[in-house]
Structure formats: C-alpha cells, structure tokens
Task: inverse folding
C-alpha cells in the first residue's frame, strides 16, 4: 500500500475540517457579540498567505533533508528549492501588503460599528 497517497489525503481532509471548524467558531462568536454576520465579509488579515508561506518553507526544508538522506537526490533537491522559494515569496508578499491589510481592517471595523449603531 502506498502510504504517501494516504497521508496526503488524510492531511488535506484534516486541513479542510480544521479550517471549516475555525470559520464556524468565528461566526458563532460574532453572533454571540451581536454582530450581524451577513453584513459583509471582514477584511482579510493575510493569515492564509502567511500560513501557505510557512507550510511551503517547512515542506521545502523537509525535501532538502530527505534529499541529503538519500545521497543528494536531485529531484528531491529541486522540489525542495521550489517549495522553499515559493514559501519565501509568500512571506515577502505578506510583509509587503501589511499596511494595506491594516487599513482594510480599520475601515471594516469602522463601518461595522457604524452599521450596528
């Protein structure tokens, strides 16, 4: 049996379940505080970009370690480089857009409290 395919399937399924549960809990907390959750979508915090960047870097480092364990396998090494540089690109994007995200969050909070009053 190929454990790699099984592991990937279980990882993707667990990730989807965890994200759905977090979204559900956020919506429940907003309802408890009296915020109308159907007024619009909140400003994006960019946390998904940060998450993807960190996961890509960790995956790239895992491929690097695996490449060195298998006596410098070129395929694993190149996959590791792709993941590592892709993750770094996501982190740079997250850092560059920090000011825009902060402005959007402030604007959303202002409009949210204005509509609730």
Result:
């Amino acid at each position: 049996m190929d454990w790699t395919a099984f592991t990937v399937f279980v990882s993707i399924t667990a990730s989807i379940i965890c994200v759905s549960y977090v979204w559900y809990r956020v919506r429940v907390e907003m309802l408890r505080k009296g915020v109308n959750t159907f007024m619009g979508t909140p400003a994006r915090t960019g946390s998904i970009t940060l998450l993807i960047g960190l996961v890509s870097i960790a995956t790239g480092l895992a491929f690097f370690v695996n490449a060195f364990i298998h006596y410098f396998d070129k395929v694993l090494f190149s996959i590791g480089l792709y993941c590592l540089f892709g993750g770094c690109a996501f982190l740079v994007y997250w850092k560059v857009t920090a000011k825009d995200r902060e402005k959007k969050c402030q604007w959303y909070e202002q409009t949210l409290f204005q509509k609730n009053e």
The helical segments are 3-32, 47-69, 74-96, 98-116. The two ends are 60 Å apart (CA to CA). The CA atoms of residues 53 and 91 lie 5 Å apart. Residues 1-38 form one domain.
